[in-house]
Amino acid sequence: MKRYIDPENERYRFYVRETLNGYSLQVLVVDQDENIPLTPQVAARLQISLPKSYRLQSCTREAAEQQLDELATLNGWAPVDTQD
Hints:
By secondary structure, the protein is an alpha+beta fold. The chain contains 2 helices and 6 strands; from the N terminus they run E-E-E-E-H-E-H-E.
């Protein structure tokens, strides 16, 4: 599973999570062990740039991970090594 971190603020990790309706982009607040959806409102609070084509949910993991990759590039996030 792909995960990204903002090198300037390591408190948050960004990833794709399976949901009832497909796959959604999520934020893990590391120090609180809390997962929250990456809605436009959350993005605004965290000062995250979203493309106009942003979709919180996708039908496939591949589409959601592609959206996550685009966000990572746009915001300068670094990949986090995972063993999943």
